[in-house]
Design a protein that fits this description.
The complex is a heterodimer. Helix content of chain A is about 50%, strand content about 15%. Chain A contains 14 helices and 8 strands. In chain A, helix 1 crosses helix 3, helix 5 crosses helix 11 and helix 12 runs parallel beside helix 14. Chain B is of the alpha/beta class. In chain B, strand 8, helix 11 and strand 9 form a beta-alpha-beta unit. The chains are: A alpha/beta, B alpha/beta.
């Protein structure tokens, strides 16, 4: 693929039609530092209604050894059985000081059959120590334009936890029985409360049931979304117990987001955060002031109908480049 | 004259004297050659010619589909049928394989693991069909599945059901085939995966304990018979070129196993505590340049396991001088057999008691190994034993770490390998310059014939019998009954290898162990070279505007993943994002991953000899997905003539065992990526 000659509108249309080759090209475009401009144009060209109102963007985290990959693999099978097309973004938060990374997604390894309606991309954290790399969100948007369910999966280690919540519609935390750590984190307020808690390895019996009980006690009565009480589901990737229930709870939360336009609000919030972060990175606080301040921009992009962070980002970036370029000369 | 008078009597005595069975010398170990390829018929011919040359036991090599439970016509078997061993899909194949070989007189060793219970069932069923008494069968099935997760890679089921299959074969043979060795606990492949002698001792002994503990727990054996079970556990050990240390390792094994049997299992009879082991000497150290030097390496490695009487091997098989080049021919195998015969019959080795008894130097080294191994055993036992330490990835990680260290040693020029690191000048070798290139070429029609005969066999079976037998097998698996009786019934009914394994997959599930490569490495190699490589990766990444992504793929059924793992670890160290998903992938899966992951380079590692088929399939797959622009490199045991052909198909670089310098390999990988994007190459380091 020659990135330089990409016809962004054409690529966006193909992605929206679910063309795998186009999805791969789109992800590659976003991953290329020299193609910032084209990447932004691609995001703006993806169908608005898909990015703001349809599909389901789910974040799944859990401590290492919680059995995340196997469980995700079972969930994918369940969605595929419902005929849903699935995209997976597997983010590995471990970094190497050389900048290198060892990726290799166990989910793909566990899928034994060739399946054109499943697309898995792994991503290193790229020096965002402990957190998710900045390409995560735009990549998830390319997938959202192409697939019905997009899963962002990562090991829950502090920052990556919070990052996942800030780019998905629904977050799910997988707890390993008898590990205790996640419960401690929730108690200590370190963890943002996820929308769904899954106690894996239910086949272990009493230990798993006890872990679920402990979680129930540890959870504050009210989560940040006052209309949603996070369910706790006992599941087992080995016996497939609880898998259908997890899928159903995801659907329930998605339906909950549809009420009162919450989904669009959440998604527009994520768009605004991305655009603001991009501008701030490139032009600093001075640039933000030039545009009238971060607060004003965020308000407009999240509340005002008819404005879109993805549409306006490009124009604002050009304005700043011109203004600052002129100032420099 | 008295002399004349005595002569006839002396002649008569001479006639009775058989120098191969000299009562004044110790009996030699069993001589074997690991053999089998193409088809049951071709392998049978090879077996019979080897026996005629004085080989005293058989060692059957099975092809990868047979080892991993697929019929020859399964898609995953593509390119692998008859490659690294003989394909055995059903009882008729087994009958052809042992045609004219009396089962009650032969000692047959089978290198078979995940499907060991099945191959033993086929062998037993064949004996029953021929009217041979089962109690007279003697031999070995390797049947150590723990090390398959750590190194060899021919596992099918998760660790716990795998252990159950081992327990079933152990308890069945102790009762029904008492001369059979039902499990050959392997330290061999641990060494290949990087194990230090201490780790080899510790992990193999932990596996032995895991098997015995599981048999005990199963309740299938009455307490009074348990010592017999302990006495049937045997081991399969590796012997490397550091033969003094290796010999000490064998002595340490002997002492430690004796102690474990006595203290942990309360075995009073010293004979039952004996560390009985077979050996295949290390073939990983055999070199491709100046391959004739491998002969002396093989001889020296054998010394480690035959020199000391107290820790002498029960059976020895030697690799051939040309294993780094390709498949050995009958003559190459004969040469290796002759080495054993010279050692056993010409030298005075078998006329002495243990020649190292009382050596302070040897005793000190043995004590040191035992101390280290005990500490490591304690760690594994803390996790709950070998199975939990596989499941949590501990042992695998430790092995990958040691292996990485070993590579570092080579990279730092700390080791001498004659013909590779030093003394590389050589006159052309007449051995490898014969018309056949000094290796065996498998008849490409063999796979096709095998598939045809399998399909013909299926067509003439009684389907109702097959169905009932498979149901019986599944019921046994579900109910936790011993798997052997229903497997033997299935063998008689004409069930195939793939059907047997599929039935159990349905009940037990399939397993993918951790790859173990997510280790933290410390830069201890040639720092300058590594810094230079990092600089090159970063420069390339800056020019392209994106991180360099490299997919390392292992297509087919070959489970020897150590090379691929080391390449992956190294590529990360120099700054690439490496995508490695473990073994047993179809070419389709690899190409799909290349598309989804947006990689700049695909590297394939293939050691089973199926490189032609696999590369063709990957190239076709790339075309289908419009990925022709992504360059392809291949590593493996690839004969020179094939290398030329692969390059003709578009493969950019080929790496064989002679390319041991990982940093240079990295330099060429970077240049392949650069050139595929129109950037100029950096050149060698």
């Amino acid at each position: 693929m020659n990135l330089a000659d990409v016809d962004v509108a054409d690529l966006a249309a193909k992605i929206a039609a679910g063309d795998r080759q186009a999805v791969a090209a789109g992800l590659r475009l976003i991953d290329n530092r020299k193609m910032r401009d084209a990447a932004a144009r691609l995001l703006a060209a993806l169908p608005k209604d898909r990015l703001e109102r349809s599909g389901h963007l789910i974040g799944i985290t859990g401590s290492p050894g919680a059995g995340k990959s196997t469980l995700c693999s079972k969930l994918i099978q369940a969605w595929r059985k419902q005929g849903k097309r699935v995209g997976v973004l597997a983010v590995d938060p471990s970094s190497h000081r050389s900048g290198g990374a060892l990726l290799g997604d166990r989910i793909r390894m566990l899928q034994t059959h060739k399946d054109d309606d499943l697309f898995i991309r792994s991503l290193a954290n790229r020096n965002q120590l402990g957190g998710l790399s900045r390409e995560s969100w735009p990549m998830s948007q390319v997938m959202l334009a192409a697939f019905d369910v997009v899963l962002v999966e990562t090991v829950g280690v502090g920052q990556s936890e919070i990052d996942v919540a800030s780019l998905t519609d629904t977050t799910c935390f997988i707890v390993q029985p008898a590990a205790g750590d996640s419960i401690q984190f929730i108690k200590a307020g370190v963890l943002e409360i996820p929308h769904l808690l899954v106690v894996n390895k239910a086949d272990l019996g009493d230990v798993a049931r006890r872990a679920a009980q402990d979680l129930r006690h540890a959870l504050p009565l009210q989560s940040f979304d006052e209309d949603w009480t996070p369910p706790i589901v006992l599941a087992s990737a080995v016996t497939s117990q609880g898998i259908d229930e997890v899928v159903a709870k995801f659907a329930a939360h998605r339906a909950h987001l549809d009420d009162a336009g919450r989904l669009q609000q959440v998604r527009r919030g994520h768009q605004a955060s991305w655009a603001l972060r991009q501008l701030k990175d490139e032009f600093g606080t001075h640039g933000m002031e030039f545009l009238g301040g971060e607060e004003k921009l965020r308000n407009a992009w999240t509340r005002e109908v008819g404005t879109s962070a993805l549409d306006q980002y490009q124009g604002m970036r050009r304005r700043l480049l011109e203004a600052f370029g002129a100032a420099e000369s | 004259m008295s002399a004349a008078k005595d002569k006839p009597a002396e002649d008569a005595k001479k006639e009775h004297f058989d120098p191969l069975n000299n009562p004044n010398r110790d009996r030699p170990w069993v001589f074997r050659t690991y053999a089998g390829h193409s088809s049951a018929k071709a392998s049978n011919e090879l077996f019979r010619s080897n026996l005629a040359k004085g080989q005293t036991g058989l060692s059957v090599a099975f092809d990868l589909p047979t080892q991993t439970g697929y019929d020859s016509d399964h898609p995953l078997s593509y390119g692998e049928v008859g490659k690294v061993g003989v394909p055995i899909s059903h009882i008729e194949d087994m009958a052809v394989l042992f045609d004219q070989i009396p089962l009650d007189q032969m000692n047959t060793s089978m290198t078979i693991n995940a499907t060991a219970a099945w191959l033993l069932a086929l062998y037993t069923a064949l004996a029953e069909r021929q009217g041979v008494d089962k109690a007279k069968l003697s031999g070995t099935i390797q049947n150590d599945i723990i090390k398959e997760y750590l190194s060899r890679g021919t596992y099918i089921f998760p660790p716990r059901p795998s252990m159950k299959l081992i327990v079933d074969t152990v308890t069945y043979t102790v009762k029904e085939i008492p001369k059979w060795n039902p499990t050959n606990v392997c330290s061999y492949h641990l060494q290949e995966a990087g194990a230090t002698p201490t780790q080899e001792l510790a992990y193999a002994l932990c596996t032995g304990m895991a098997v015995l503990d599981a048999v005990k727990e199963s309740g299938q054996i009455p307490e009074k018979d348990f010592p017999q079970v302990v006495g049937r556990i045997s081991f399969f050990v590796n012997a490397g070129i550091r033969f003094v240390e290796e010999m000490c390792k064998m002595r340490a094994f002997t002492e430690m196993w004796d102690e474990i049997c006595r203290d942990r299992y309360g075995i009073d009879n010293a004979k039952l505590r004996r560390f009985r082991y077979g050996v295949q000497v290390n073939s990983l150290c055999l070199t491709e340049p100046q391959p004739e030097n491998n002969i002396q390496r093989i001889v020296l490695e054998m010394l480690a396991v035959v020199l000391s009487k107290n820790a002498r091997a029960r059976a020895v098989q030697l690799p051939a001088w040309n294993e780094a080049l390709g498949l050995p021919r009958p003559w190459d195998q004969q040469w290796s057999l002759r080495i054993q015969q010279v050692m056993a019959y010409e030298t005075d080795l078998l006329e002495y008691a243990d020649i190292f008894d009382g050596s302070r130097v040897i005793e000190k080294k043995v004590a040191e190994l035992i101390e280290g191994a005990k500490a490591e055993i304690a760690k594994v036992q803390d996790f709950g034993g070998a199975i939990p330490a596989v499941e949590n990835g501990y042992m695998k990680k430790e092995l990958v770490k040691s292996h990485t260290e070993r590579w570092r040693g080579i990279e730092m020029d700390e080791r001498v390998v004659v013909g590779i690191t030093h003394f590389t000048e050589s006159a052309p070798s007449p051995l490898a310059s014969t018309a056949d290139g000094g290796i065996l070429k498998v008849d490409p029609k063999a796979a096709h014939d095998q598939i045809e005969s399998l399909q013909a066999f299926r067509a003439k079976r009684n389907d109702a019998d097959v169905k009932a037998a498979l149901q019986g097998l599944k019921d046994a698996a579900k109910n936790g009954d011993n798997i052997m009786p229903s497997s033997i019934r299935a063998a008689h009914a004409g069930v195939t290898t793939g059907e047997w394994a599929d039935a159990l997959r349905e009940i037990f599930g399939e397993y993918r162990p951790p790859t173990g490569i997510d280790i933290t490495t410390m830069v201890r190699g040639k720092v300058n070279e590594i810094e230079e490589l990092r600089h090159r990766v970063k420069a390339t990444s800056d020019e392209l505007g994106e991180p360099i992504r490299f997919l390392v793929g292992k297509p087919g059924l070959d489970g020897h993943s150590n090379g691929a793992e080391q390449v992956a670890v190294k590529a990360r160290e120099v700054g690439m994002e490496v995508i490695y998903e473990g073994i047993r992938l179809t070419p389709d899966q690899i190409v799909t991953a290349a598309q989804e992951e947006g990689v700049h380079l695909v590297g394939l590692s293939i050691l089973s000899g199926s490189h032609m088929e696999m590369v063709d399939a990957v190239i076709t797959g790339q075309k289908n997905l419009h990925l022709e622009g992504v360059p392809l490199v291949v590593g493996g045991i690839i004969p020179e003539s094939d290398a030329g052909e692969l390059k003709g198909k578009g493969v950019k670089e080929i790496y064989t065992p002679k390319d041991y310098n990982m940093n240079q390999i990295m330099a060429t990988l970077i240049d392949v990526i650069r050139q595929s994007h129109g950037l100029s190459a950096f050149g060698a380091l």
